[in-house]
Every structure is written in C-alpha cells, then in structure tokens.
Amino acid sequence: MKSVTNTQFIEPWIDPTGWHAQDFENVQTPCYVISETRLEQNLKILERVQKLTGCKILMALKSFSMFSVFPIIKKYLPGSEASSVNEARLGSTEFGGEMHVFSPSYTEENIEEYIKYADHLIFNSFSQWNRFKTTIKKADKKVSCGIRINPEHSEAENPMYDPSGSNSHFGVTLKNFEPQNLDGIEGLHFHNLCELGADALDRTLKVFEEKFGKYLPQMKWVNFGGGHHITTLDYDIELLCNIINGFKSRYPRLEVYLEPGEAIALNSGVLVASVIDIFNNGIDIAVLDVSATTHMPDVLEMPYRPTILNANPLENTENVFRLVGPTCLTGDVIGHYSFNEPLKIGQKLVFLNMAIYTMVKNTTFNGVNLPDIALMKSDWTIEVVKSFGYEDFKNRLS
After folding, report:
1. Helix, strand or coil for residue 107?
2. Residues 106, 85: Cα–Cα separation, whole Å
3. How many whole angstroms separate alpha carbon 32 and alpha carbon 268?
C-alpha cells in the first residue's frame, strides 16, 4: 500500500485574506459574497488529494452551483455531479469534463435528457435499472452505468441526512442486491456521510467491502459519495489518502471517485445583511433584510446557528439581540447573538460560511428579493455578478 505522510500533502487550511467588517461597508444588502482566494484554497487541497491518490473528485452541484466561478473550479477538478436534468445540463454545458448523475426518479420523459448530458448514470434500484437498461444500451452515446448501494451503516447524526438509516429510500441493500443482474453495470456508488471526517469513511468502507467486495473485481469504478469535509481545519487528509490508496491497492483496476459538495466552497463565502429595525418585546429584537427561511434555509432545516463576524461567544449575555428575517413567518428567526456594542439601524452584519446550500436552496417566499451574488477578488475588491428583482419573483409563478 502506498502510504501518504504529513510532508506530502498541503498544510492545513490557512486563511490569507481574513474577513474584515470594513471590507463590506459599501456592499448593498442583502448580498452573497464569494472569495475567489478562499475558493481556490479549497481546490488546491482537493487537487493535492487527487495527485497523491489518483482518485477523481467531482463537484456536487447540489451544494454549490455558482457557474460564474466554474472556470476556476474546473482548473482543479475533472467534472461535476448532478441529481436532476437541470443540474446535469448546467454541469455539462457550463462546467464540462465528466458529468455523473444520480437520481432515484428516472422516467421515460427524462431519461433521454439524462443520457444527453451524462457520462455516468447511477441507478437507485434494480427496478430502475431494469426499466431503462435497454434504452441506455441502444443509445448512440456510451454511458457508464452504476448501482447505488446502501451499506446499512450510519455515520450521520441527524436522521434527515442519513441515507443509510432504517427504511431509507436510497440505495440497494445487500438483501435486495441482484448479482445476476449486473450485465451492463460498471460501477458501485455509496453515500452515507454528512460533514464527516476520514475516520467515518474508513468505517463505512470496511462495511462496504465486507458486504459488496465480491462484486468489485467485475467493476470499472467505485464512487465514495459525498459528505467528506476535506477542507476543514481538523480533517485528517493523510488518513483519507491512505484509505484511498489502500483501497486502490486491493482493487487496482478500479477508478475511485469522490463527490464532496461542501468541501469545495466551504468557508469561501458570506451573506452580508443590514439591520432594518430594532425594538423590544421582552428581549431586544433586530429585524434584518436577510431571512433564515428564504436566504439560508439550512438554519431552520438542519437546524443550526450561523456564525456572525465579530459577534461574541454564545455564552456572553451583553447586548443580546434576537435576529429575525423580514418575512411574515413567525419562525423566521436566525438566532440570539451578543455584540460588544448595541446594534444600530443600518449596521451591517456578515454571516460566515454562506456559499454552500444557500444560493442553491433560496426562495422568493413572501416576495422577498433574492440576495445579490458578488465576487471578492484577490485584491479584496468586490464585484456584483448577479442581481435579482421583480421578474425573478414573477417568473417562478404563473
């Protein structure tokens, strides 16, 4: 087994730019701001993993689909991963390279579109494979097909993000696997991680090989799925590389893919907000022009409390404000925060780590405008690349 040592991979993620409140003083809010420098830092780490292991890392579009930065990303990654026709088309036409697709819902109406854009098609069940394998075999374009398996091994803490949990609708379990039905299947795919480290992959891979390893010699590729938090400060990149290299030494013919979503744009973007109103109803309340439910829905769905630049630690009890959004939803509450000084109307607040699962999931509920999208260049200048208005709200309706 080829072993990777600490001296071979990139140093832990170091922020050369920092986020500074004064950088956003002239930003019209609400606005997502993505740092090209931070994005490229993440990509250099992923590129290093690829070079040390020979694996291929794909960009999962479900987390981050900002196509204006695709020219940067595709310098480092060989392709993208999609779970809908629209994502597949975006990845194929705007990103290029390899296009991998997983969907639990291929239909007669969309399968031809998927074939048009995809290089790899992953099926969620043998039922779906049986339904469309003839169509794929007759297609003019060669598409490599795979089956998603369910290792029935859970690592994610939140059941909402655990595709290996009881009665999951994702993947084929060992009991339901059909080894006699693998003609035309070239790969296996598993995905059961969510914001997890290499140790979780290590445990999962052992289960995967124990249950499905006998079928690997007849495959061409294996996809380790997403949820690998590779670009966090505490991620064990050395362990990841050694896991992949160990696997490849056991199965030297297999191409190994990973498709992390968050790792690509993790900590590379912020959401800049303004304080619109302040009043008291048993607690000080600040109304912002950003919304949890429309602009950062994972705050409510995960749920979690986002970090704000220069806010005090949670246990601090001075100048505490409940931050709420501008919609009519009572639950549009971002959280309670403490500040060194009382907030003021017009003050800017900068929410950190707002590139991932924000732009791809935001909505115009209540007619609330979508935030602008801007790039922070290497010289820290900020350029708005997209603004939204009434037509964007209207055109989502009929």
Report:
1. coil
2. 10
3. 10
* Over residues 148-155, mean pLDDT: 98
Q: Which of 123, 124, 201, 125 minimizes the C-alpha distance to 156?
A: 201
pLDDT band at 18 (very low <50, low <70, confident <90, very high): confident
Q: How much is the average pLDDT of 51-80? A: 98
> What are the CA-CA distances from residue 62 to residues 81, 178, 226, 252, 262 (Å)?
8, 29, 11, 30, 9
**CA angle, 60 as apex, 54 and 66 as ends, to 5°?**
120
pLDDT of amino acid 3: 63
Q: Which of 229, 226, 196 is nearest to 13 (CA)?
A: 229
pLDDT at 314: 84
User: DSSP letters of 242-271?
Assistant: HHHHHHHHHSTT-EEEE--SHHHHTTSEEE
Within the chain, where are the H helices? 36-53, 70-73, 85-90, 111-117, 126-138, 198-212, 237-250, 262-265, 292-295, 298-301, 390-394
Task: Characterize 212-225 residue by residue with b for buried, 16 or more Cβ atoms within 10 angstroms of its Cβ, and e for exposed.
Answer: beeebeebebbbbb
Distance of CA 104 to the CA centre of its chain: 18
Structure tokens at 371: 């935030």
**Nearest CA-CA partner of 269 in 42, 47, 83:** 42
Q: Is residue 254 within 8 Å of residue 289, measured between CB atoms?
A: no
Torsion sign, CA atoms 214, 215, 220, 224: negative
- 263 near 344, Cβ under 8 Å? no
What three-state secondary structure class fits 117?
A: helix
What six digits make up the tokens of 96?
């290029």
User: Alpha-carbon torsion 275, 278, 283, 289, what sign?
Assistant: negative
- List the one residue out of 109, 116, 106 whose CA is nearest residue 148: 106
- The pairing of strands 79-82 and 320-324 is unpaired
Tally of CB atoms within 10 A around 249? 10
Q: What is the DSSP letter of 201?
A: H
State both tokens at 163: 């595709």
Does residue 54 sit in helix, strand or coil?
Answer: coil
Could you give the CA distance from residue 153 to residue 137 in angstroms, rounded to a whole number? Answer: 33
What's the DSSP call for residue 323? E
- Structure tokens that stand for 249 in this block: 């030494």
The first and second tokens of residue 279, run together, are 């009043």
DSSP letter at 219 equals: -
